[in-house]
Amino acid sequence: MSDSGFDADAFSIAILRTLAEAPGEGGMSLPRLGKRLGQGASVVMRQLTLMGDAALGGVRGPGWVRVMQLDDRWVAHLTDAGRAMVDSLPADENRS
Asked: Please, which domain of life does this record's source organism belong to (predicted)?
């Protein structure tokens, strides 16, 4: 468990790794992220909410991601804490 009380489960790790693959600092739109992960945008948004820095139930999230609305699109970005988390993950043999 991390200092924030949030465990990095398989879905969270998949999100972090997918966002880390986004070019530059551009982030990734929720529909694109959902498509890459094989999940609906609403499922992805719920998980991103847990992975942000908002306090839910009095417990602050780990702050690995931030979600912003740009014009009419919701875009997810890794934070510095999220990049550090990705860098600390073991290599994934299933990725090419």
From this structure: Bacteria
